[in-house]
Amino acid sequence: MNVVLTYNLKKKDATKPADYFSEFDSEETVNAIASALKSRGHTIDCVDVERKDIISYFRNNRIDMVFNIAEGTRGRFRESEIPAILDYLNIPYTGSGTFSLAVALNKALTKKILRAENIPTPLFQLFIKGNEKLNADLKFPLIVKPNYEGSAKGINSSNVVHDPAELYKKAQEIIGLYNQGVLIEEFIEGKELTVGILENGIPAILPILEIDFSSCTKSGEYFYSWRMKEYQGDSEQGLTPTFHCPARLDKETEKLVKDTALRTHRAIGCQDMSRTDIRLNKDNVPYVLEINPLPGLNPKESNFPLMVNAAGIKYDEMIEAVLMSAYQRRKLRHG
């Protein structure tokens, strides 16, 4: 199969904020996916989607399938950019479609869908201007997040606020830096979990990953902040979470968490793979924080491959499963 791997490559640019390129992928990730596809007998071309002739490239080359990990370039629907082009050109691709990618990047809209599906998610409010009256039902502590960002961009320990003064100060700061609405949601104290789903014919729920931040005292951060994701493993900064996969859960709670992740995957319309972030409160209620239809695939650092490995699936087998899931979907659609 002639496969094109589409991606955005991480860059260094002193004129941009430190977290500006954090959603983009490293050369290590691109090379690992390309190597896995080659090992399964596919012909591979790796394409950074920021090239100016990207549409001409798609038009003028024989492409059987696009393996898409591109985050897009700009705007609130950026993760949908490449899938939208491919849909227009009738070129098949892996992963979720334009609608699911656009919805998942909009935290508030995702949470509205979850609530409509009776999937637990923290109580929330969307601020547009930053001076809206706070919903009296919201209970402190709250966490303040940019509404249209991934990879924990704009999030650090100071985003957890304990009174209205802190809340409005942080909301105005985020609106000023990121030029977008701000999600205010109740901060759930409890276990941090993430659940991967890998499809190849039927959805397979991977072993639950528990991220334990009790060893991160030096950093002062006890959840997945941007620094925690970007510099994970840095002992000097105290960014050394402990991973438990499978998570330390009883069988009943494990089943409930997995069911919640699968329902979220289906509610947002994800395809081939997804990773759902969950906080398990003291009453063992799994609250969905968000879902990522484009989970990181770095074989050494990303959570999704870690869960895949815990399931006894090799990295190249996982990449092939994603590819074949998309291929079978294409066959069903076109016969």
Outline the secondary-structure elements.
Blueprint: E1 2-7, H1 27-39, E2 43-48, H2 54-60, E3 65-68, H3 81-89, H4 98-104, H5 107-116, E4 124-127, E5 142-146, E6 160-161, H6 164-178, E7 182-186, E8 191-200, E9 202-205, E10 209-212, H7 226-230, E11 242-244, H8 251-267, E12 273-280, E13 286-292, H9 303-310, H10 315-334
Parallel strand pairs: 1-2, 1-3
Antiparallel strand pairs: 4-7, 5-6, 5-7, 8-9, 8-10, 8-12, 10-11, 12-13
Describe it for me?
By secondary structure, the chain is an alpha+beta fold. The chain has three domains: 2-96, Rossmann fold (3-Layer(aba) Sandwich); 123-186, ATP-grasp fold, A domain (Dna Ligase, domain 1), CATH 3.30.1490.20; 191-311, ATP-grasp fold, B domain (D-amino Acid Aminotransferase, Chain A, domain 1). It is built from ten helices and 13 strands. Strands 8, 9, 10, 11, 12 and 13 form a six-stranded antiparallel sheet that branches. Strands 4-7-5-6 form a four-stranded antiparallel sheet, sandwiched between helices. Helix 1 packs across helix 10 (315-334). The radius of gyration is 20 Å and the shape is globular. The mean pLDDT is 93.
What is the C-alpha radius of gyration, as a whole number of Å? 20 Å
Tell me the CATH architecture of the largest domain. Answer: 2-Layer Sandwich
Number of helices: 10
The poorly predicted ranges are: none
User: How many beta strands in the DSSP annotation?
Assistant: 13
Q: Label the structural class.
A: alpha+beta
CATH C-level name of the largest domain: Alpha Beta
- Sheet bearing the most strands, described? 6 strands, antiparallel
Mean pLDDT: 93
Portion in strands = 15-25%
Number of domains: 3
Molecular shape: globular
Question: Can you give the helix content as a percent range?
Answer: 25-40%
